[in-house]
Specification:
This protein has three helices and two strands; from the N terminus they run H-H-E-E-H. The chain is mainly α and 123 residues long. It has a domain of 53 residues. Strand 1 and strand 2 form a beta hairpin.
């Protein structure tokens, strides 16, 4: 099986998993009375409201912690979480350096090429 065929098969398997999840959701739904379905909808609405408020607070406090650690310039460790400080990354203009390397080939000794990576995306 070539890579395109593997990708197509992977897509088919993902679609089968989606269909299976829908099937089991429908089975669950079919055994619930309208009253239970309404109660679950009410619970879901309450949950969403509560989680939205909590997630807003989490986002705000996360931003404060990140700003504190950035200003402090060092990792801070709590009892359960750690805010890891990473100093700023240095980047170079590869296109410009490649042009410079034509005139100054000695700079090529300092060039390192990492391993390629692959991510899967839906088409």
């Amino acid at each position: 099986m070539d890579t395109k065929q593997k990708l197509d098969r992977l897509s088919e398997m993902q679609a089968q998993a989606d269909v299976m999840r829908l099937h089991f959701d429908e089975l669950r739904k079919s055994i619930m009375t309208p009253e239970i379905q309404q109660a679950l909808a009410d619970i879901a609405a309450e949950e969403s409201t509560a989680l939205d408020a909590l997630n807003g607070g989490i986002a705000e406090l996360t931003a404060e912690v990140k700003a504190d650690v950035t200003n402090f310039g060092a990792t801070v460790k709590g009892d359960y979480l750690m805010a890891v400080y990473n100093k700023a990354r240095v980047t170079w203009d590869n296109k410009g350096l490649d042009g410079f390397a034509v005139a100054h080939p000695e700079i090529a000794a300092f060039r390192k090429v990492g391993e390629p990576t692959v991510t899967l995306r839906k088409v």
